[in-house]
Amino acid sequence: MDYLKTVVPSQFVAERGDKLVVINPGSANIKIGLATQDVPLIIPHCIARRTAGANVPPRKNVIDQMLNHQVTTSQHVERERAYDTIASFLKIPSLNEEVSNSYSRKMARLDGSNLPTNKVPAFTWTDVVEKKCDSSSTQSSDLIENAELKEAAGVSGRKYREFICGEEALKISPTEPYCLRRPIRRGHFNVSPYYPAQQVLEDLHALWEWILTEKLHIPLSRRNMYSALLVVPETFDNREIKELLSIVLGDLQFNVAVVHQEALATVFGNGLSTACVVNIGAQATSVICVEDGVTLPTTEITLSFGGEDISRCMLWTQRHHQTWPPIRTDAVAKPIDLLMLNRLKESYCQIKESEIDAVAVVHSYEDGMPAVAHKIRLTALNVAPMGLFYPKLLVPEVYPPPPRTWYHDYEDMLEDTSNLEYPRRPDGSDLYPGFNGGLPMWETYPIVTNKPKKLENIGLAEAITKSILSTGRIDLQRKLFCSIQLGGGVSLTNGLVAAVEDRVLHAIPPNEAIDTVEVLPSRHDPAYVSWKGGVLLGILDFTHEAWIHRLDWVSGGLYVGSKRKYRESYYIQAQPMCYMNS
Fold this sequence. Notes:
alpha+beta; Actin, Chain A, domain 4; Nucleotidyltransferase, domain 5; six-stranded mixed β-sheet; four-stranded mixed β-sheet; 20 helices; disordered C terminus
């Protein structure tokens, strides 16, 4: 401990971070990097695999669990009502008022030289052909001898790449023989009748292996010298965490690994110990409270919407106002279009009263053709992000969460310990080997049963208020309402902080003795603050009490030294924080 008081953080990183890989998997993006890096790699969490029959386009270009592409009549009515409610709040015309001047808006969409404009570059289609060898004759000979390669080459003699990962996968032309797969959707494994669990795990393994080898330059032969720290979102279920650990320790062959919750990593990355963590991801939003470095599972709320829903809503808004050009833009079936919409949202959307317009250049991407630019005037750019508070505007049912029946296939990662009794020593040393007491909080900490995650159909302000009030203690509630921490790329939206503070304050029931709400600024970029917190947790966790060794896990999934299942994850994930606070 004397050494810890004298050492500087940069020295810690240099001594312990060069062999630590921090992995923060999300639905749309994965944040991954060595602890010695200042910022992580942020890579789209998807993979495109070549389909059989290179000369025939695949029947499905995107495999997903999507059940309802079209918005129903009732959803459309609810969306319009939500728009009008938001319009009244933002002091802009309602939909009915807009109908009368939609024609003039359309005609004047290019007349806005004094409006803000940010150049969003066009994307180019991914080259799906493997680089040719130096000797073309050798390549031709190999193709003739190998039937599988001959099929991959086709009549044109082109040899297709077997799989393509990351942003390149999102920019593959629909005419090419590839099928895009997203292993995680809405905060869970994207398992469906069209995408079995085994294929999801294989895709995750291939994607992470590609990142480690091609981006971080850590080959499999050297992987046993590295440790892996998983920062898992609160949306993940216990079996999903178990499968991720099996990939990291079994397939990727890291020496040791540990799991930490995203909320805990977020507060630690910002130098806090108590906060209400609101992580607004691309496809799901989670709210959970942390007290003295321990997450409170009873406060957890999951919302099935995120940044991509805002992007799709922005497109709907422009089409409703007839400002979008007559091009075939499909955010669901054409991943490159969603990529473009996400960039437009990040550049232009904000939350502010009055009408918010901007001149922008959008692009149409027809199959295999170069991008075509269209200069337009975007309007009502403050409406879509307000969908966080009025989720009916976003229509998240277009992309529902994956079905959950597959969790009954076999034994879960964390057994239900609610009806089991374990003899506990007064100092708690039976819980973990080497645990020497001094932390009375563990004696009363609740054991979390393995129940399915529940999705709430409420807005962001109501979710934050409900989460904090569920703690039941007025002193803690007051502290949490003044310690709201926003994470995720969406939290960078201009005006969101003020909107959260205002709407949460109005969502608190009048009978509650709370009159102050504050969103704390983030020490790091909110897009990767949880990854940064994971780096600190991994470097400072010098006791390694919660780390799992590869041989122990592969031989049966046992927690090292305890001869028990890797259960009670909330204990394990919070343990390093408690050691540092003791």
